[in-house]
């Protein structure tokens, strides 16, 4: 019986080690040639703006840039495991999203942006009043919303869409830096992830 327990223990340790190593290997890859990510759907629970990945617009909208700045500050707070700061920044982002003016876009784009912003506001509000584990759950959907927004509005600087294969079946986020700093695990697995693509 003790031999069985020790064998099971060794198997469990081997599995955990392989899982962590797999994540580390993924973070080393530069995925500029891999096109799998372009097929990835960014669907939301309400189904408002799911579908195929759109080509990113090349110009930036200063309105959207304010939202992006608040999003990146929030991401950095989660990277730093700072629950209190993330709460504050969730509230700040909620305000920025509420101030978003989509009037310069086509009717179709305005409709899509309205859905995206409404969904993002809901998740930013949850982040402003949650513990860090719950904040990270909402940040996952918020990131999908922001990626969808940037597909329409563009960005003023180069962005990196990054991907963690470990968190909740695989999760993306945006960063201004190529170096991976994981907001879903923070200090627990800071470098887990890879760059899926560059935007702009």
Short key terms for the protein model shown above:
single chain; 200 residues; mainly alpha; 3-stranded antiparallel sheet; 5 helices; 8% strand; globular
Task: Note down, in words, how this protein is organized.
The protein has 200 residues and is mainly alpha-helical. The chain has five helices and three strands; from the N terminus they run H-H-H-H-H-E-E-E. A three-stranded antiparallel beta sheet has the order 2-1-3.
Quick one: how many beta strands?
3
SS element count, helices: 5
Largest sheet: 3 strands, antiparallel
Content of β-strand: 5-15%
Q: What is the percent of helical residues? A: 40-55%
Overall, the morphology is globular
One letter per element, helices H and strands E, the order comes to: HHHHHEEE
Structural class: mainly alpha
Distance between the termini: 60 Å
Low-confidence stretches: 7-22, 24-59
- State Rg: 18 Å
Mean pLDDT: 79
Q: What multimeric state do the chains show?
A: single chain
Please give the order of strands in the largest beta sheet.
2-1-3
Short description:
With 200 residues, the protein is mainly alpha-helical.
List the helices and strands and how they pair.
Elements: H1 2-28, H2 62-79, H3 83-98, H4 107-127, H5 132-153, E1 159-164, E2 171-175, E3 194-199
Antiparallel strand pairs: 1-2, 1-3
Helix pairs in contact: 2-3, 2-5, 3-4, 4-5
